Amino acid sequence: MGVTRRRFLQQTGIATLALSLGHLAPGRPGRAASPETRTDRSAPASAPHEAAYRTWSDLYREKLAWDHVVKGTHHVNCWYQRGCTWNVFVKDGLVLREEQAASYPQTNDFVPDFNPRGCQKGACYSDRMYDPGRMQHPHKRVGERGEGRWKRVSWQEALNDIADHVIDVLREEGPRAVYWDMGGGMTNGLAMGALVRTIRFLDSSILDLDSEVGDHHPGAAVTCGKIVFCSSADDCFYSDLIINWGGNPTFTQIPNAHFINEARYHGARVVSITPDLNASAIHTDLWVPVNVGSDAALGLSLAQVILEEELHDEAFIREQTDLPLLVRRDTRRLLRASDLEEEGKEDEFFVFDLASDGPRAAQKETLALEGLQPALEGDFQLATRQGPVTVTPVLNLLREHLKSYTPELAEKVTGTSPDLIRSLARQIAKARAATILTQSNFGKFYHGMEMERAQFLVLALCGHFGRKGSGLNAFPYLSIDGNMPVALAPPPLPDLGALFSAVMDALRPPPGETTEMFYLRMSRQMYTAGTFVSSSLFLHTHAGLAPLTGSSRRWDPHLKRDADEYLSEAIEKGWQLLPPEPRMFFEVGGNLLRRARGHDRLREGLLPKLSMLVTFDWRLSTTALHSDYVLPAAGWYERDDIVWATPIAPFAQATTKAVEPVAESKPDWEFHCLLMKAIQQRAIARGEKTFTNHDGEEQSLDDVFDDFTFRGLVSEDDPEPLLKAILFASSNLEDTNWDKLKQEGHARFTGLGRSPINITNATDIEPDQTITANTWHIEKKMPWPTLTRRMQFYIDHDVYLELGEELPTHKDAPAIGGNHPLQMTSGHARWSIHSMWRDHPLMLNLQRGEPVVLLNQRDAESRSIREGDRVRVRNDIGAFELRAKLSPAIRPGQIVVYHAWEPFQFPNHRTYQAVTPSPFNPIEMAGGYYHLQPFLTFGQPGMNDRGTRVEVEKV
Question: What whole-number distance in Å separates Cα of residue 18 and Cα of residue 457?
């Protein structure tokens, strides 16, 4: 056409400028676009904003202008990277944009600060909260569930119907038939407080979901008796060896990844151990490739080298672990006092003391050896009640066990070269401080418990726990501790000073019990009370997943019994608790019908059992699409609250109300208030003023709203008094109140506080020091909360002995899904983390825009699959379709499908979870062994998806 590219750009640039300024003569007043003209931004508007445009630069200057700025954050459960303070810019009653606040203090001069915290997902929430998917009004289903036919209703109409159903279920089926799912979107301020009070006054049930989603860290639980312990991100600056084992922090810890990179620049060596060469591995000093599901074999091979070359830390092993404890060779049981004396205790164990040349009881009150010199090798003859027996230290059995894991033998399983294994083992053993950065990956493998146990063993052999820059970070959690006392406080709200003192007295451990063990016992009691129920067992028992979750023996050649037989034994002996039958279900922060593995079965297994399914959300999720009522929730910039944190970034975060909620959406506190008010009003109107709670006692309904709001002290539309009370009652945010937190956006934790979950971090928090987990055990010699009171690597439970897992071991990944050649893995995607971002255009524009499966190029070529082809992933369980994305970074024999895609983004709404049977591993059902029992967040059978066997074919 005779127009050069340069000429075309010049002409179109002039035309664009003319269109922008043509109606704005210099000096003439202009008018900013009103909210009504913006795309579906249905928010209240102030008076039109007048502006004078004199030049083109004024146009852009006005575009960036704002009325005021408030602090905000996001309630998305991005967990390891959770907790970022943002400046939220408001203009004309709308959120204009957000920017990272970058106001976090530096811990000390040696380590980097936490700035800037945030990622691309948080940076687009101002757009997400106004997009067309935003729920603005209550809707009632008028067609079949999932059909997509809705009727707009008023809040009062919806609440009256919901309240009537609640009352019916409470009185007819019982209160525990009413279920709540808070998912990962819950806060620990108003949203959590409101939910806890609702559950308390209705005596209903709530799903404990960590085992279901595979975040329950089974190896940590078995080894340490707990799973919540984690160091701060800046603590890795004291490490000289940082091991990223099975994770991808460049994707999943965007605000924290700079600590790893800066530590590397500072001299630390960074190692990645992953099957695929992921985005984190390419920026490390050493990538250790490992076959999918073979991590336990790799860990045990590292341990074999460390022991063979005498690189282990004998002092640490003797003091902190069970490796010196004596085991009977005849029964494979730990030697107990009951073996030696008729009245001997079952939980008193022995070492062979070299100083006195005889057996001595291992102390339980302290880890200090106090003159003991426990033997670590050799066989010893002892006289027992059953006659003479041979005993040997656990470490001796471990050495014998590890003969099967030499680097040469391990290579056949792991695909990792022997030289590389030996080199890495020496690096770990000789490091001043080594740390393993875990995500919640291995709990999602069928044999994930053994993979985690092997990791703990490697670090424990070298003494890498409880010192700056060392340790294995498990489940990260740190919360204000005033939320539960206030949420559970009786009406009216008592004097907070008296409440604080009462709580401190109630949470003081009795003599002979450590603080950590006392709090874990409380956690156990909270679970056995029945309010919290295992989400995985709920889905197995009541949601139609039993044919999948109970199919373990079909895939696992090591099992001698069916999974149902193991489960029946666990139920009969009280090791596990069966959830009650559901009748009514509230989704108030999660997305169960997308989240659950095998979720497509829930539509036939769970939904018919529910008289009503209610979703309270700010978007139309998959669960909402199948609900009877969908109620609009306020966005994260439309409410006041306090968001739970982690030790990784040890700051409590405030989110503050920047603008009024869109249309008829409401914050969590107001939703719960309105529901309780409707229940009270309908109970009075119906003359049904009480119900029988699970203890068989009468509980009132005609004053639940009055009690819920502390007899009117906290109103439904002004919950600030409750936020102030929560912070007043918190002991681990000194000198912080709600007004200060709201102004600054964050506050650094000053201690662990009194939370039963927080306390197992087992460390002191100092203002100018990084957080190092488990220092109480190393420095204060506080026993670990296990049966032996030590890090426990030998489990002589009947089920462990039956399955050959008394010591950490490797078992080949079972062919779950059928005898197919490819293993499917997953992970949190950089552009979503969870499903609330998966259908957002800005995030989709940064990737392929639809679900993809990543394949190795050779695997694709052998199947005649090319880049962008539509393919079917199938196995013996099901199939789903998506696009192929070829990558040389993916390991041959592996495919990767990143999680959180909504089912409605796939043909026929069938996702990767349609091919994951997630069979229970019976080893996770064992109980009755002090620390092998269900607690909040762990100790329950988990569901899994990593390593599922599949085939891929071109459609």
Answer: 70
Query: What's the half-sphere exposure (Cβ side, CA atoms, 13 Å) at 779?
Result: 11
Over residues 931-948, the pLDDT tens digits come to 999 998 899 999 999 999
The residue to which tokens 């050799």 are assigned: 378
The Cα 198–Cα 676 span in angstroms is 8
One-character DSSP codes across 848-908: -SS-EEEE-HHHHHHTT--TT-EEEEE-SS-EEEEEEEE-TTSPTTEEE--S---GGGSGG
**Residue 528 host element (H or E):** helix 515-528
- Give the C-alpha separation, 45 to 833, whole Å: 33
pLDDT above 50 for 284: yes
End-to-end Cα, the chain, rounded Å: 42
Residue 519, CA distances (Å) to 196, 510, 525, 724, 819 in order:
19, 11, 10, 26, 45
Average pLDDT estimate for 227-248: 96
72-76, 173-177, 261-265, 384-388: range with lowest mean pLDDT: 72-76
d(CA 381, CA 360): 14
Average pLDDT over the chain, rounded to whole?
91
Alpha-helical runs (H) found in 620-703: 622-625, 668-686
C-alpha 455/C-alpha 296 separation (Å) is 8
Phi–psi pair at 687, nearest 5 degrees: 70, 25
The CA distance from 672 to 869, in Å, is 48
Q: Could you give the angle at the alpha carbon of 486 between the alpha carbons of 481 and 490, nearest 5°? A: 145
Dist CA 318 CA 310 (whole Å):
15
The backbone torsions φ and ψ at residue 420, rounded to the nearest 5 degrees and listed phi first, read -65, -40
d(CA 786, CA 801): 18
C-alpha gyration radius of the chain: 29
CA distance 678 to 157: 10
Rounded Cα gap, residues 757 and 483, in angstroms: 13
> What is the DSSP secondary structure assignment for residue 445, as one 8-state letter?
B
DSSP code, position 522: H
The string of pLDDT tens digits covering residues 637-690 is 999 999 988 999 999 999 999 999 999 999 999 999 999 999 999 999 999 999
DSSP symbol at 281 = G
3-class DSSP assignment, residue 825: strand
d(CA 585, CA 145): 14
The Cα-based distances of 99 to 71, 482, 642 in angstroms read: 10, 30, 19
Q: Which one is the CATH code of 240-473: 3.30.590.20, 3.30.420.40, 3.40.228.10, 1.10.357.10?
A: 3.40.228.10
Provide the β-strand partners of residue 646.
649
Beta-carbon contacts of 807 under 8 Å, excluding residues fewer than 6 positions away, are 394, 397, 398, 401, 793, 794
CB 752 within 8 A of CB 775: no
pTM across the whole model: 0.93
DSSP assignments along 173-239, one per residue: T-GGGEEEE-TT---SSHHHHHHHHHHHHHT-EEEE-HHHHT-S-HHHHHHHS--B----GGGGGG-
| Contact assessment for residue 828 and residue 897, using Cβ atoms and an 8 Å cutoff | no
Q: What are the residues facing 374 on neighbouring strands?
A: 353
pLDDT tens for 71-100 read 999 988 787 888 899 999 999 999 999 999
The answer to whether 644 and 618 have CB atoms below 8 angstroms apart is: no
Give the number of C-alpha atoms closer than 13 A to the C-alpha of residue 227, restricted to the C-beta side. 29
Question: CATH 3.40.228.10: which residues of the chain?
Answer: 240-473
Residue 382 phi/psi, 5° resolution? -130, 150
Which amino acid makes up residue 921?
N
